[in-house]
């Protein structure tokens, strides 16, 4: 590098000739050089500032554009567009009066980062002390495994457990925030709610997804970010549900039944006010599906929806209604009830001898198998199938439960003349208590079809006219007479006139064919108030036995009817029904007939 001298010789000689001081030349040149260097440094600094300003402008422009794009995008699209985003939000579930059935609560997950752990062996033993299901030695081996850096320990913690883990003082034990699904009423309405679990999980959040019941059926709706602040309102009444559960549990226990179910439905809207299946479970701690044994014995099995049974004489009401509606019989028509009724090698018998003839009304009141079979003989298989199909008994019953769509009725392979007769009194074809409730609702509401629903309705939906209003009136009177004069006398409740039909069906033998001995499915299908039905109640007990008498009694009149009567007595006031004297109800019948 060539360095320019601060005191050029030519200028020094010239300065001496003119008498100037040569030392000023060096001072002047140094000043000029310093000023030039400052100008160059200032130029470089200004250039850097301009470049930095351009970078900030571009960065904020990009961020602003991205924020504007996200702000203009629907929340649902946002959650789907960002693969790393995990939404734990989920809408609440409430009953028809706004009481919470299911909600989300904040909680924490517990995990370990082994590289941060100070004393992993001690931490493992302390965790085993807090959580008895943890094996201390196995957990210590996982903590000390050099190939493991991250370990899930608990997906959710109670506040007490979290504090206990915190007190261990191990820096490698960390908590991840998330929300958990909570059912504050425990087992109440377990088969309706179903349950939820964690889906995709991250350290900072976890999905809450439905696994059964309405939680699964409405899963997408309740997880939609645009809908999470709108609770799902069910038709269930929590107070009524609690009462039905309590009475049904007591009846199941007293009658030594294997299982029990009850369905309470509004006959006009199809709203399911209460649905109970026993045994049940706590959706906060949903058990694993069974791997052996009978599915119906599992607490997860919903007998009201998944249970398709031969329900016995409760089906006679449909047979009589069809005969009345088609005009083949009238209530006073006399039917030959001499028995047994032989068909090939099969004999159809009544529970007791009712004599040579009964009126159609008495066929219902006394529950004559032979009488019902003879009524259906006049109608035939094709018309019977069409009638039952219009009532929804030959197809899966639509309901907002994932389990409902997977359950189908069992029908005869060939709908023979013998099938026509046996199906008329409830054997040879299976149906569910829910489907039976919907059928009885249509029979007594003026003949209009109803679709069962678990969601609260704001209006009465219109349905197909299945039978005439006149036939519906005749059926209501017959059901009233069954309670007052027939097999359901224990259903008489002061202040709340009830109509209904009993059914005691022998259970099919799953191994040897035919029917089991001393194994009965007892059902009582009731409506109340009988003169102006508002609700239908189906109560079914699996293998009940009343041992209070000298001999065991298994029929519905001794088992399902008293349980149903107690339910009606306790829930009628909760439903806002005012007491009515029996004379008033019978006067209303007399006026209409």
Description of the molecule:
- This protein is α+β, with helices and mostly antiparallel strands and 593 residues long.
- It has 2 domains: 75 residues, Penicillin-binding protein 2a (Domain 2); 353 residues, DD-peptidase/beta-lactamase superfamily (Beta-lactamase), CATH 3.40.710.10.
- It is 39% helix and 18% strand.
- It is built from 20 helices and 16 strands.
- The strands form 5 sheets. Strands 1, 2, 3, 4 and 7 form a 5-stranded mixed beta sheet that branches. A 5-stranded antiparallel beta sheet has the order 9-8-16-15-14, sandwiched between helices. Strands 5-6 form a two-stranded antiparallel ribbon.
- A hairpin with a 5-residue loop joins β1 and β2.
- α11 crosses α18.
- It is elongated and about 160 Å long.
- The chain starts with 8 loop residues before the first helix and ends with a helix.
Might you state the CATH topology name of the largest domain?
Beta-lactamase
Low-confidence stretches: 74-84
User: By CATH's scheme, which homologous superfamily of the largest domain applies?
Assistant: DD-peptidase/beta-lactamase superfamily
What is the makeup of the main sheet? 5 strands, mixed
The CATH architecture name of the largest domain reads 3-Layer(aba) Sandwich
What is the C-level CATH assignment of the largest domain? Alpha Beta
Number of helical segments with 4 or more residues: 20
Instruction: Estimate nothing, just give the exact number of structural domains.
Output: 2
- Helical content stands at 25-40%
Strand composition percent: 15-25%
Number of strands: 16
Q: Based on helices, strands and strand pairing, what is the structural class?
A: alpha+beta
The general outline is: elongated
Query: What oligomeric state is this?
Result: single chain
């Amino acid at each position: 590098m060539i360095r320019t001298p601060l005191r050029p010789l030519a200028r020094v000689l010239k300065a001496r000739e003119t008498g100037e001081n040569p030392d000023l030349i060096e001072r002047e040149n140094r000043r000029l050089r310093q000023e030039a260097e400052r100008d160059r440094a200032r130029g470089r600094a200004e250039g850097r500032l301009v470049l930095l300003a351009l970078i900030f402008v571009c960065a904020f422009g990009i961020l602003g554009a991205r924020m504007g794009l996200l702000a203009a995008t629907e929340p649902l699209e946002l959650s789907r567009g960002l693969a790393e985003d995990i939404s734990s939000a989920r809408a609440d579930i409430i009953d028809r009066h706004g009481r919470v059935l299911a909600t989300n609560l904040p909680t924490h997950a517990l995990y370990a980062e082994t590289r941060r752990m100070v004393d992993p062996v001690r931490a493992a033993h302390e965790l085993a002390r807090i959580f008895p299901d943890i094996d201390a030695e196995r957990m210590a081996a996982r903590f000390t495994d050099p190939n493991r850096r991250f370990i899930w320990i608990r997906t959710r913690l109670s506040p007490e457990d979290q504090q206990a883990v915190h007190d261990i003082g191990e820096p490698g034990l960390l908590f991840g925030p998330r929300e958990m699904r909570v059912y504050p009423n425990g087992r109440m309405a377990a088969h309706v709610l179903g349950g939820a679990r964690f889906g995709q999980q991250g350290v900072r959040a976890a999905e809450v997804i439905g696994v059964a019941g309405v939680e699964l059926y409405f899963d997408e709706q309740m997880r939609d970010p645009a809908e999470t602040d709108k609770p799902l309102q069910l038709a269930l009444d929590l107070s009524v549900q609690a009462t039905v559960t309590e009475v049904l549990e007591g009846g199941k226990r007293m009658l030594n039944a294997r299982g029990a179910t009850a369905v309470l439905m509004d006959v006009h809207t199809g709203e399911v006010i209460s649905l109970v299946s026993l045994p049940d479970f706590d959706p906060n701690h949903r058990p694993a599906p069974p791997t052996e044994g009978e599915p119906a014995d599992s607490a997860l099995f919903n007998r009201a929806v998944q249970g398709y049974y031969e329900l016995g004489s409760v089906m006679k009401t449909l047979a009589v209604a069809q005969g009345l509606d088609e005009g083949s019989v009238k209530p006073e028509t006399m039917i030959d009830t001499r028995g047994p009724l032989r068909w090939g090698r099969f004999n159809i018998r009544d529970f007791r001898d009712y004599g040579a003839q009964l009126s159609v009304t008495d066929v219902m009141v006394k529950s004559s198998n032979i009488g019902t079979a003879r009524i259906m003989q006049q109608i035939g298989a094709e018309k019977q199938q069409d009638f039952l199909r219009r009532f929804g008994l030959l197809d899966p019953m639509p309901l907002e439960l994932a389990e409902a769509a997977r359950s189908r009725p069992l029908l005869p392979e060939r709908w023979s003349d013998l099938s026509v007769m046996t199906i008329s009194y409830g054997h040879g074809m299976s149906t569910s208590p829910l489907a039976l409730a919907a059928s009885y609702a249509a029979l007594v509401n003026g003949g209009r079809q109803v679709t069962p629903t678990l969601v609260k309705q704001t209006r009465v939906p219109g349905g197909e006219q299945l039978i005439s209003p006149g036939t519906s009136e005749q059926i209501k009177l017959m059901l009233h007479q069954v309670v007052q004069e027939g097999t359901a006398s224990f259903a008489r409740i002061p202040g709340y006139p009830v109509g209904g039909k009993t059914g005691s069906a022998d259970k099919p033998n799953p191994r040897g064919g035919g029917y089991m001995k001393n194994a009965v499915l007892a059902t009582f299908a009731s409506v109340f108030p009988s003169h102006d039905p508002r609700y239908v109640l189906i109560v079914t007990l699996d293998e009940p036995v009343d041992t209070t008498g000298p001999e065991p009694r298994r029929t519905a009149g001794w088992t399902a009817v008293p349980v149903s009567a107690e339910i009606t007595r306790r829930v009628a006031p909760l439903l806002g029904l005012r007491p009515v004297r029996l004379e008033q109800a019978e006067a209303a019948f007399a006026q209409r007939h």
